[in-house]
Amino acid sequence: MIFASQVFLVALVAAAGPLIIHLLNRQRYRTIDWAPMEFLLQAVRRRRRRLQLRDLLLLLLRTLAMVFFVLAMARPIWTTQGSSGYAGQPVHTVLVFDNSLSMAYTPLDKSRLEMAKDKARQFIRHLPSGSDVTVLPMCEQSDARFSKVYDSKEDAMDAVARIGVVDRIAHFDGLPASVERVLSQSGTAPTKLLVVFSDMQQATWAQANEEMQMDVWSDAQFVAVRSREEGALDENSWVESLRLRGGFAESGVPAVFDVVIRHEGSKPRQQVRIVLTVDGEVAGEQLVNLQPGASRKMTFDYTFEALGGVVNPAFIPVHVELENDRLAADDRRCYVAPVFKRAPVLFVDQQGDFEQPGQNRFGETWPLRVLYTSRLGTRPDTVGHQPHLQPVTLDSVTPEQLKDVRLVVIAGVSSPSPNQVKLLRQFVERGGQLLIAAGAEFDAQQWTAVAWNEEGGILPAPLTGQMLGALPKPGSSEEDRRFYLNPTSLHRDVFDLQLSNDDWNDLVRSSFFYQAVRVESQPNADDGHTTSVGHVIPNGGGAAGPNGFGRLRVVGRFDNGAVFAVHREVGEGNVILVTTSCFPSWNNLAVQPGILLYDRMVKWLIDCSIPERNFVQRSEHFLPVDRRDQQHQFELISSTGRQNTVLEVEAVGADQFAVVARGVDQRDVYAIHRRDTGDGSSTEIYSFAVNGPTEESQLACVVSDTFPSRDRWLGTNDTISLAGGAARRDLWLYLLGLAAACLLAEMLVASVAFRRQTENAEAPV
In terms of domains, do 450 and 568 share one? Predict the structure, then answer.
């Protein structure tokens, strides 16, 4: 027996109510000897046994009424094992279809899903007359609903035809509850049949051992829609990942797209054409050879034209495609690339606009600005001719300047004032990013006193005021006092340079240091480590405290164990503190490839300021809008034209409104357009990319010998049995009737007892 609504079983504790009331009503009296009472006591002794039996009977009836009522609400279902005796009798058949991405695999002229649908149609035609059919997809579809019980074979086959492949992974964990709700529907034939059609992909079924022991699967039949013999590996190639290196691009600066192609099968593929498309135009092509069980990494260079603004970037659709194979749905991957007109950075150092390179008077941010102009293909001596690269002093920073940038780099500044700390704190809390570097006139004690302020400022951690190491004296050789970076301590999420382990170690070890400021030890700091290139062990973050400070994260150390860089979230923004300089005074970073570590921190912080627009398996998207926009019409449009949906403005909170895009279940680039009700013009206000999970591209399948229900494993050519059904009886009406009967009996017993008491009271004494 199973219960369709097990949550009601908790209410069984209410059955103890009549017993508790009975015990509470048993009052204890003090015995007082009184001679006339002896006559009454003799009569009471004769009636005591009868009264006790009556009370126990009333207690039993009331308790049973409560128990039967609770069990009725829990919907108990009695299941009996089916047999051939059910042949020819109507059945309620539930057909479950695996419609995940892997079911689009086409071995010949039909996909696996079409093969499953053909098998289901053949089975429906042979169902006994009067049977009911329910069609249930494992992955929800945005364009169809399947909650109805069909009593017509034609309607059932039409529902089967509406099943389509969605770009998602099939999750088995939520399926038993859905199947149980369908099997428990009233008004259907008592004999139930459950048939599951799937390619039995490991990503879905390998972890289903425990769930397969549930009663709902006790009589299920599993049709394995396979194209090869068990254990054989199907050929498939797919685009595993597409990303823009650095997370954003700048107009006129070469951008790099990193692409990973994966291939599985028994033989390699030669000269496979890979195409990069940017904003609908082919931007690059490559021919590659793919080996079984291996990933092929490749890069595409592309320079965007003058697009986007300084603070608000343009979002450009990007696609990578490979030559179609038998699973064409995963041969494409989408991306939305943010493109700025220029890097939204404000440089602040000790010299500011008083910098005079001709007189050897440089600000601490000079190396970063030189690196930026080199990417533009500009000579370093023209840095001063780039207005947005001209540094400023900290005391000249204004709120208007901060509105035009996403990141502020402060290097070599002696100390901020309380007003400057307040201004920068507001900037970071609202989503701005801040990079603080020591060097030049940096005063650790003053920074701690003013900018730490017990987590009330902008410094991510307090400083001790003591220096690590010392600057070499002129003309002396003090190589023994140098210290280096520890390559394994640098977090690759911050310092991701897409290098091999050997190249990474060479780059990190190329720079040496003479001096740094010391960070005060913090007992609650996270100090993670990396395993290999591009793989990070999560270790930081955490919920922000009441003052808006997140948990401190050490993102790099020197080889002597001292801190190189720390990171902290402040409100909606991030702050990184580097304990050494970026100018060749405390180290030689600026004249070594190690300066790329600073450049990478700058890019990482800017990337953190850009809201995510590239998603995997996300079916709902919320776009906040002003309440005044309710008069406009909104549309969701895909780049391939497969989806054009009218969206409504919905209330999502107190005086908060949003446009909600639901049912986005195919990989593509989507745009939300606002249509003006006056002239009918349309304006794109938001775009995003959706991709499916890469697990669905792994076509490895479980085999029948390891399947928990291998005795009910059917091949594509096997016959689905009608004799395997189970008879299910919903007992809730019977239990509800028993509860009512107990209440009626209790009323009858109570009324008889009351009538006898009345008759005894009226009798003459």
Answer: yes
Strand partners, 657: 625, 651
Please report, for residues 123, 143, 588, the alpha-carbon distance to residue 128 in angstroms, rounded to integers and kept in the order given: 10, 31, 84
Same domain, 459 and 373: yes
Pair 434, 355 in one domain? yes
As a three-state string, the secondary structure of 611-627 is CCCEEECCCEEEEEECH
Same domain, residue pair 500 and 543: yes
- Residue 755 exposure: Cα atoms within 13 Å on the Cβ side: 6
pLDDT at 396: 94
Mean pLDDT of 694-706: 85
What does the block give as tokens for 164? 């389509």
- At 158, list the tokens: 């039409």
56 and 182 share one domain: no
Q: Are residues 707 and 738 in the same domain?
A: no
pLDDT in tens, 254-303: 999 999 999 998 899 999 999 999 999 999 999 999 999 999 999 999 99
| Residue 428 sits in the same domain as residue 570 | yes
**What pLDDT, on the 0 to 100 scale, is given for residue 9?**
64
Q: How many whole angstroms separate alpha carbon 58 and alpha carbon 746?
A: 6
Model confidence pLDDT, tens digit, residues 297-307: 999 999 998 77
pLDDT for the residue 82: 47
Alpha-carbon gap, residue 205 to 654, rounded angstroms: 43
Query: 199 and 272, same structural domain?
Result: no
The residue among 608, 623, 647 that closes a domain is: 608
Q: How far is CA 675 from CA 630, 631, 643, 684, in A?
A: 11, 10, 17, 9
**Alpha-carbon distances, residue 615 vs 620, 666, 690 (angstroms):** 11, 12, 5
Task: Choose the final residue of a domain: 285, 314, 341.
Answer: 341
Evaluate whether 361 touches 577 at the Cβ level (below 8 Å): no
Neighbours of 691 (CB within 10 A): 23
> What is the C-alpha separation between 571 and 431, in angstroms, rounded?
7
pLDDT tens readout for residues 413-462: 999 999 999 999 999 999 999 999 999 999 999 999 999 988 889 999 99
Rounded to whole angstroms, the Cα distance separating 603 from 344 reads 10
- 538, two tokens: 């999560």
**Contacts with 383 (C-beta within 8 Å, 6 or more apart), sequence order:** 357, 366, 369, 370, 373, 389
d(CA 288, CA 297): 10
Contact 225, 102 (CB under 8 A): no
* Residue with token string 């057909």: 95
Domain count, the chain: 5
What are the backbone dihedrals phi and psi of residue 699, each rounded to the nearest 5 degrees, phi first? -90, 10
pTM confidence score? 0.78
Question: Which one is predicted more confidently, 762 or 343?
Answer: 343
**Containing structural domain, residue 179:** 83-232+699-724
Single-letter amino acid code for the residue at 744: L
Q: How many CB atoms lie within 10 A of CB 77?
A: 19
Tell me which residue has tokens 């009977």.
57
Residue 244: CATH number of its domain: 2.60.40.10
Sign of CA dihedral 221, 227, 229, 231: negative
Asked if 192 and 183 count as a contact pair (C-beta separation under 8 A), the reply is yes
CB atoms within 10 A of CB 121: 14
CATH (domain of 113): 3.40.50.410
Token pair recorded at residue 543: 């919920």
